[in-house]
């Protein structure tokens, strides 16, 4: 077997692989013998089919299979051993690859085009300065979190008078009216219909509920109240969407219940509910604990922004890179055959931007000795679980639930790849923060969010 590689312009490689009969014949013979042992043909006992018959029936297919496997092993082995940074996958050369007659004994020549990554050096050190945003945890931010916890632990009280300022929820009986203003025979009737007037889109209809009390009867028109939301009408009147689209009738609404939402008091019961029994003993400790939690969550956002800024800084520092565009477009088309050439034309430029950062990041990871193991990935999964629970106001989730949630995430292959990437990012961020000069900037959360949205 002979392998040669040409790479005159450094980014377009051509690998030629020549396979002789002696390279494949032993494996072909072995596989055919295995076929013979298992062959079940009329007129022959199992394992006694003549080898000539086996060869005629399976010989060429087995040879093709063995040679293809040999090509893959030798090609990728050569790339690995010679440290060729191949992009994508090798493809047969469209000009030099001649038709292969597998009926012959060989030699067989295969010519592959290979896209090679451009050569460059990505380095970061003390002489490099990158912005780092410290998001301020002020009283307003803590107040918002306290209010969220109080709201989540709140409850509804029954009251007798509707107050639109307090976002009261009404419960009552709906009856469809006919053109004469009386209850329509065989009209829509809904008992125990729940309604929150504050969410009615049209002020004229919303104001009809002002001053409502238990026992009040309000006449309103659902179509006028929700002119652009048939789904709301479908839900309220318990009718299908086709009927909701043509529903023009007025309805009476007999108020049978008024519920007012009351936030939980900021007291020991709330402290225990959020952080566990007796973990916090005062409002001051409660606010301090909340502040620490917010700061830990925001540090993740700051780190993410830092990595984005590192990316921009390094892309500018590395400058323009030359890629084997024609070859990469062929690879992209092969991987997206169902989407066609237009998909490649529309998305190639963006893919090159991502490829450039991928190559830069690979070097930064290697230069900083970043390696992740199963434990690192598991820790990222657990942290992701904690953040997701925290978003729902659950700051005191027992470790066994976090552990189970993380384990369930890791059972999904689609999750594992992103968690591995995240684990790499976590270690890379920490390494780079200790390597470059940080231009620290304090910023409010609102301004930080605005900045991220603009990007």
TrEMBL record:
GO terms for molecular function: peptidyl-prolyl cis-trans isomerase activity; protein folding chaperone; ribosome binding. Coiled coil: none annotated. Keywords: Isomerase. Signal peptide: none annotated. It comes from the Bacteria. Its EC number is 5.2.1.8. Residues 1-147 form the Trigger factor ribosome-binding bacterial domain. GO terms for biological process: 'de novo' cotranslational protein folding; protein transport; protein unfolding. InterPro entries: Trig_fac, Trigger_fac_C_sf, Trigger_fac_ribosome-bd_bac, Trigger_fac_ribosome-bd_sf, Trigger_fact/SurA_dom_sf. This is Trigger factor. It comes from Marseilla massiliensis. The lineage of its organism: Bacteria, Pseudomonadati, Bacteroidota, Bacteroidia, Bacteroidales.
